[in-house]
Amino acid sequence: MRADAKIAAALERARAREDLDPDAIAALFAARGDGLAALVAIADGLRAEQAGGVVTYVVNRNINFTNVCIKRCGFCAFSRDYRAEQGYFLPLDEVLRRAEEALALGATEVCVQAGLAPKLAGDYYLDLTRALRARFPALHVHGFSPEEVLYGSVRSRRTIRAYLLELKEAGVGSLPGTSAEILVQSVRDRIAPGRITVAQWETVVRTAHEIGIPTTATIMYGHVETFAERAQHLDLLRRIQHDTGGFTEFVPLSFVAAEAPMWRRGSVPGLRGGAVEDDVIAMHAIARIVLGRSVRNIQASWVKEGLPFAQRLLGAGVNDLGGTLMNESISTSAGAEHGQLLRPAELRAAIVATGRIPRERTTLYALRAGDDGPHPLDALDDPSRLGSYRELTAAAEHRFALR
To answer: Bigger pLDDT: 51 or 398?
Structure first.
């Protein structure tokens, strides 16, 4: 069957609300022109059915407590060797100070992720969570990627299940479903050899869901993966969600090439410089078609795409714009140029401009009452006092010993 015939057949199945097999999903990624417009229209209709006219966002702060990492992932411009001049490891008091500042600015969540520091104490993630929850019980701790959970379990000599149970008891409310990239092992071996495997990622996520810790789900695309490999990734997420129901949202993350080591060095054959515009639109629309029945919330990353383009994606199946972030380090270090903070008023205005209804949510998608009035973060007249990525890391340089 010719490519255009495959696209047309896949679109018809999508219009009929059928579950698409990986071959049909892969065909949709090739849609362009009228085919892409049809794809977007189907996704927007499904969004209206599944999520309605509300667009949500969360008031949160990212706390990346170290950029020192034992891994050498080709796409990561954030991590540093422990001997590097720019390497840092924030002391607990500084992590707590940032959490306290976030709470004062109206945040309901802190997102805690970092590099894998060498010789990290096995209980460090547990101790950090206990300290945050003891001092700020109202803050939701959205913390620790599957890679970090695996690392903590290895360092502490616990099983993944035992370690996750302790994280839950310590107060972790949910896990970010990052370190996913493309969930096809041959792709991972090209862009990040030695990183958490597909089987390990799936084990961490399924175990978290089984013991009652929800997670998000992500994909990083636009580098070396094929349409078929993107489809495999989405199909695996769909199967996990069918079995566990533990994903709260799906977040497509386009590859930012500018500062990525594998892009700067030209070390990965066939590497592309990121997803083109039509790719980004198709990814979000296909995510709604493939996952929307069981993963209600499809998020656009304003950090990756910029707010104007994220607004466009609200018409392609998206119903969430993510968080205010306050300090976004990882995409920024990779070369993303869309800032590190958006105030609630900015997010709300962007949503209203598309004809949709803005609502503040919690991490787990409960709508917040009284969210339409002035917000403390809107009153922050000088966002620079929160510190830029470089200022925050420079302040920590060489002053704190690595564990």
So the answer is: 51
